[in-house]
Amino acid sequence: MIPYAEMTTEMLQAEYAAAKEKFEACKSKSLKLNMARGKPSKVQLDIAAELLTVIQKPEDCFDGEIDARNYGELAGLPCARAYWADVLGCKPQQTVVGGSASLNLMFDVIARAYSHGLLHSPRPWCKEETVKFLCPSPGYDRHFRITEFFGAELITVPMTEEGPDMDLVEKLVEDSSVKGIWCVPKYSNPDGIIYSDKTIRRLAGLKAAAPDFLLMWDNAYCVHEFDGEFIPFADIISVCEEAGNPDMVFEFASTSKITVAGGGISVMAASEANIQYMLKLLGNQTISYDKLNQLRHVRFLKDKAHTLEIMKRHAEIMSPKFAAVTDWLDREIAPLQIASWNDPKGGYFVSLNAMPGTAKRTLALCKEAGVTMTDAGATFPYSKDPQDSNIRIAPSLPPVAELEQAMDVFCTCLKVAALEKMLNI
Amino acid sequence: MIPYAEMTTEMLQAEYAAAKEKFEACKSKSLKLNMARGKPSKVQLDIAAELLTVIQKPEDCFDGEIDARNYGELAGLPCARAYWADVLGCKPQQTVVGGSASLNLMFDVIARAYSHGLLHSPRPWCKEETVKFLCPSPGYDRHFRITEFFGAELITVPMTEEGPDMDLVEKLVEDSSVKGIWCVPKYSNPDGIIYSDKTIRRLAGLKAAAPDFLLMWDNAYCVHEFDGEFIPFADIISVCEEAGNPDMVFEFASTSKITVAGGGISVMAASEANIQYMLKLLGNQTISYDKLNQLRHVRFLKDKAHTLEIMKRHAEIMSPKFAAVTDWLDREIAPLQIASWNDPKGGYFVSLNAMPGTAKRTLALCKEAGVTMTDAGATFPYSKDPQDSNIRIAPSLPPVAELEQAMDVFCTCLKVAALEKMLNI
User: Fold this and answer.
1) Is A216 helix (H, G, I), strand (E, B) or coil?
2) E strands, A288-357, where?
3) What is the pLDDT at residue B36?
């Protein structure tokens, strides 16, 4: 195999005919495979089977004197706050342990910024003429959508190997209508990038014109290595405090990809001043989150060390799946030089950049052949990838055998789309 | 005993001396009793012990093909939607089964009305010059606070024996800035009133000037009889539809006072058009609610019939507590004619109207003697009871023995406050 770019038109036409034939063969299999979302697989969910039995009797339902079955403790059970403080490296009083979705905690922070303002807001964001939000891209569509939902103008910031392009970020935050930035600091979605220490320090030290500039720090994959040892991460609350921006950051995490997807427990961490402020607002919206599930999780996960042991079992399941994806790409696509991709050690995604102008077409072809992937463009603000190039591959859900089938289809579709483009078909 | 109003000043002074002495004796006991909130007692929470073991193994976690442990099903598990449809008498597709707090679902509806508008809103409520909300009072402080939080002007509507004063409501809704009304149709909080069929029909048939007028129908105590048989209630969704206002109502309920307080499952029911609209908005905020807890609840509660059996067990525990409260009042207060109260057959509260101008003082005295009650005024908008008269008694939490002690204190404080008032002390 030689790169497509080095082929003659005749060679490309022959390649196209072969790829098209392969595509039709794939289609005839009537597959129904899904690599759209970062969903854990059934075997991963079974890892947390013990969670189902760890609380059995009424007398198991107590955290000290507190009955987890009754109203109260808006900030979460003390043992659950201590658990998350251990995992994130912050203080228990810097946490609010929430319900089953960290996304909802993020939504609530942005929603409150809009309707009532944050701790240092001169006014609610809905009273501002313009609110702009920085979206390092490719990034997570659900993040971008929250800020879009509240009418913010989304500004694309390119990703580098070390995280968001900080030269650009530092320039953009001189505009006082820029109110915040979305960050996934460890195994960024979808690139799998770990922000460098320098990038983290520059983010924490931002001299933003907006007094209520908001670092949305979604530490979704904080303990989610699937290849190699746990990589420690900085406590962003302290780093921001040391940089003179103690109230700039809200950090989020959940056990959705540790125990039960959409049925775990979530956390929001921030300075004590921020936590007190948010609790005052949250008190209008709920009496308390599900403390029984918090207790169940603490009993099962115990602490950070034990959580990391559990993550090793996830790694055993995830690792061969990611290997399958990159093996297919290395074998089928690399020699053709029509795409590039990352090779992450953790997180849930492989981020692939196809030949510009072919991502949408590739995924349309995949769909035709029964393979559902995240929509092209989804990783950019307003779902518009200016290059029509980025594709997010989520290999966690299907068993390896299905994944191999799906990757066969995907590689074929990548080729067909590239060849169509090159041959102007 | 004769009524205070018929006593001479000398008699009142003697009564006061005796009551004051009794009060000091109460104080010296250093009690620490709480009747502030409608919290279930430990024995009630133990009724749902089976909830802790009803799902034990990974294979128990399926609702048909759906793995309750994975992302998805924003509207709730099909079996959970069917459960609530059975309880509420509506259709499964008219429900969204939420997390552990129905209050949060109510908050989200009002929050979305403000930020984005409802299905028939000409504009988001935050863009309206004035938004007014009707608050039948005495009512639930947390309801009132949600609308206050979003800047609505709260309008007090008196309660009658049949529910809100409908003549007044019908007049008030001619004002297009009146956007909705809070209702607890069965065992209203705190009066324990069951809205009459006529009141319900008049509410459902309201010809409101606001096209997006909102009936917030908190059916919190829909199956919560503690004295006598279950009293059927109308499906408000159908009643509104028949009255030509299909999209006017959102109904809410939860299992907080059936299984686990703040750890149960909640529901929002409305027309299919409303549900589709809200799901579109909710999709920006979360991926799905905790379906494992939904499944656990359906396995334990089964259906409406079985839920009513479980409620009988709650009734056995609740009934003697309410009897203790009304016995004390009948014995100690009734002959003095210084207060009136209801005698509910369900719900969580006894609503007492003390001599005007004495509610705050009564509760301050209670606090001094170690008995915490819901703050005076809490049952009115802005926590301001114009008569300073209404007191909400929540007898569910303390064991009967403690309740007797607390009622002894409370009756003493009622007397002291009334006598202070009459004697201008």
Assistant:
1) strand
2) 339-341, 350-354
3) 86
Of A67, A284, A293, which has the smallest distance from its Cβ to B45's Cβ? A67
Asked if A373 contacts A393 with a C-beta cutoff of 8 angstroms, the reply is yes
Q: Spell out which residues of chain B touch residue A103, defining contact as CB-CB under 8 Å.
A: 285-287
**Residues B396/B41, Cβ–Cβ less than 8 Å:** yes
What region does A384 belong to: left with phi over 0, alpha with psi -120 to 50, or beta?
beta
DSSP output for B201-248: HHHHT---SSTT-EEEEE-TTTT-BSSSS------HHHHHHHTT-TTS
Domain B60-306, what architecture?
A: 3-Layer(aba) Sandwich (3.40)
By C-alpha distance, which of A407, A395, A392 is closest to A329?
A: A407
Task: Note whether B260 contacts A: Cβ–Cβ < 8 A.
Answer: yes
Q: Which CATH architecture has domain A63-302?
A: 3-Layer(aba) Sandwich (3.40)
- The full DSSP string for A178-202 is EEEEEE--SS-TTT-PPPPHHHHHH
Secondary-structure percent of chain B, ordered helix, strand, coil, rounded to 5: 45, 15, 40
The H or E element spanning position B67 is strand B66-67
Supply the mean pLDDT for chain A.
Answer: 97
User: Residue A32 burial by CB count (10 A; 0-12/13-18/19+): exposed, middle or buried?
Assistant: exposed
Out of 3.90.1150.10, 3.40.50.10810, 2.30.30.30, 3.30.1360.120, the CATH code matching B4-45+308-422 is: 3.90.1150.10
Closest CA to B393 of B339, B314, B315: B339
Distance, in Å, from the CA atom of B274 to the CA atom of B296, rounded to the nearest integer, reads 27
**What is the pLDDT at residue B185?**
98
Burial class (CB in 10 A: 0-12, 13-18, 19+), A241: middle
Q: Are A251 and A219 in contact (CB under 8 A)?
A: yes
Asked whether the domain spanning A63-302 has the same topology as the one spanning A4-45+308-422, the reply is no
Q: Cα B49 from chain centroid?
A: 25
Nearest-by-CA chain B residue for A281: B149
Which residue, B51, B281, B282, B72, is CA-closest to A262? B72
Most B CBs within 10 Å: which of A65, A287, A295, A299, as the mutation test of the B interface? A287
Q: What beta strand segments (E) does A197-259 contain?
A: 214-218, 249-254
Cα B144 to Cα B154: distance, rounded to the nearest angstrom = 7
Note the pLDDT tens digit of each residue in B40-60. Answer: 999 999 999 999 999 999 999
Q: Look up residue A372 and give its two tokens.
A: 């559902």
Domain coordinates in residue numbering, chain B: 4-45+308-422, 60-306
C-alpha distances (whole Å) from A249 to each of A168, A237, A280 are: 19, 7, 18
DSSP A346: B
Count of CB atoms situated within 10 Å of the CB of A319: 15
Question: Does a cis peptide bond (omega within 30 degrees of 0) precede residue A246?
Answer: no
Please name the residues between 103 and 162 in chain A that touch chain B, using a CB distance below 8 Å.
103-104, 107, 111, 114-116, 126, 142, 145-146, 149-150
**H helices, E strands: number in chain A:** 13, 15
Q: What is the ipTM of this complex?
A: 0.96
Which has the closest alpha carbon to A156: A424, A422, A390?
A390
Q: Where are the alpha helices (DSSP H) in A116-196?
A: 141-149, 166-172
Is the overall model pTM greater than 0.90, yes or no?
Answer: yes
Of B257, B361, B347, the residue nearest B301 (C-alpha) = B257
**Reduced to 3 states, what is the DSSP secondary structure of residue A262?**
coil
What whole-number distance in Å separates Cα of residue B334 and Cα of residue B329?
A: 6
Give the mean model confidence (pLDDT) for residues B118-134. Answer: 97
| Tokens of residue B203, six digits | 């509410």
pLDDT on residue B34: 87
**A372-386: average pLDDT:** 94
| pLDDT of A34 | 87
